Amino acid sequence: MSFQVGRIRTNVAATSEIVLAPELRALIAEIPKPKVVIRVPNPPANVTEADRFNSYINVIEKEFVQQGYTVRDRALLQTLVAGNSDYKAIKDRIDTDLIIDVLALHFDGTVAVHKFFNKTTGAEESFATEATYIECPVAILECRVTILDRGQLGGLFTLKASPADSQDYSFIIDGFRQNMAWQGQQTAGMFPVLRIVIETEEIRLQMTRALTQRLIGLLSPARG
To answer: Taking the domains of the chain in order of start, what are their residue ranges?
Structure first.
């Protein structure tokens, strides 16, 4: 039986859900790099999980700072917000334009990919049946943006990313396009389903950075 070499790459980012209010677009046009504060309305209750989640929030804040944004202290915001619904007064106290609420950040999503690029034939092809596919992991960032001086919802985002969005994964597939193995691992057997998994904390941090860069792009003035 002849074997061919395939390559999988996803475009999970294209399935993100983005709602951007005209008022937020106008603010961004007027203030290209608004002052922001990152808030976590519902942090994990478990101490270990909370510490891990906080490390992801630190990455988000760092990405904004590296892109030239002023990032205000989230603990100070929590103190000011407690018992105070006057957003204009809060803005004057903390000098911030936007509150970015991180509603969820998780890494357990998946998507089944049924098409691949065949390196041997040079064409995009489908696997033989629906039972043959590659399962790719999906990281998801859900956030809400509030325009602080008016207490108005400016945007809702469900942003998605996968390691396979930016990295090629090569595999060996049989001539029937039914069974495959990761390149270099075919001696262990051929299977109808392969899985890419987010195994390490470093990959989770990379996904957090990728999602944050996507968010920053959406909160930047339109070009062209």
So the answer is: 3-218
Indicate the pTM of the whole model: 0.90
pLDDT tens over the chain, length 224 residues? 689 999 998 999 999 999 999 999 999 999 999 999 999 888 788 878 888 999 999 999 999 999 999 999 887 776 656 555 666 777 777 788 999 999 999 999 999 999 999 999 999 999 999 999 999 999 999 999 999 888 899 999 999 999 999 998 999 999 899 999 999 898 899 999 999 999 899 999 999 999 999 999 999 987 53
Question: Closest by alpha carbon to 159, among 215, 219, 220?
Answer: 215
In sequence order, what DSSP letters do the residues of the chain get, joined into one string?
--EEEEEE---GGGG-EEEE-HHHHHHHHH-SS--EEEE-SS--SSHHHHHHHHHHHHHHHHHHHHTT--EE-HHHHHHHHTT---HHHHHHHH--SEEEEEEEEEEEEEEEE-EEEETTTTEEEE-SSTT-EEEEEEEEEEEEEEETTTTEEEEEEEEEE-HHHHS-EEEEEETTSS-EEETT-GGG--BSEEE----SHHHHHHHHHHHHHHHHHHTS----
173, 6 in Cβ contact below 8 A?
yes
- Taking the C-alpha atoms of residue 29 and residue 122, their distance in angstroms, rounded to an integer, is 44
In 3D, which of 111, 113, 124 has the Cα closest to residue 6? 124
